[in-house]
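Hello forum,

I keep getting stuck at the same step: I have a sequence, I want structure tokens, and every attempt I make locally crashes halfway through. Rather than fight my setup again tonight, could one of you with a working pipeline run this one for me? It's a single chain of 104 residues.
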Amino acid sequence: MAYKLIVTDRADEQIDRLVAYLISHLNNPEAASHFLDELETIYELLEENPYQFAESKNEYLFLRGYREAIFHEMNYRVVFRTDSQTIYILGVFHMLEDYGRKVY
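Reply #2:
Ran it on my machine without issues. Output:
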């Protein structure tokens, strides 16, 4: 069963800023490319089955049905929720970020 993936404008902006930071500030285009490859892999897995990922550990997000997909090779998480056959990407956060405070 395939799910439709919708990346919110806010998540798109986060991704753009993160890639720009990796390229411009850290001068590491390879890391930016690797990040985008990992993100694409997460998206593909989400479209196959979003329920393979754990429920959010943040209580506020958990109570609202959000889940988290963790990058295997990088320290990032994708926060999303599923509504019927649609997946909504809320944001992409570094593992050290207090992401719970940034979403509400």
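DSSP finds four helices and five strands in the chain. If your local run keeps crashing, start a new thread with the error log.
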